[in-house]
Inverse folding.
């Protein structure tokens, strides 16, 4: 259990390696997914599923393009 509580309006260091010094991002797609998650989850209201949102957005764009 974390001893220090996270609080709003503060900055925190995100470690650049995993447990046992393992690499966190194995490929560019992993890193892209991380940045997408940081952007989409950094809001107060619920967003649902990134996968579903991306899928629905692509579907809507395809329909508008036809």
């Amino acid at each position: 259990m974390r001893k220090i509580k996270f609080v709003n309006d503060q900055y925190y260091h995100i470690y650049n390696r995993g447990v046992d010094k393992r690499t966190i991002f194995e490929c560019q797609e992993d890193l892209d997914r991380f940045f997408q998650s940081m952007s989409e989850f950094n809001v107060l209201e619920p967003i649902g599923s990134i996968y579903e949102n991306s899928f629905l957005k692509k579907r809507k764009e395809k329909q508008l393009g036809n």
About this structure: The chain has a mean pLDDT of 80. DSSP finds two helices and no strands in the chain.
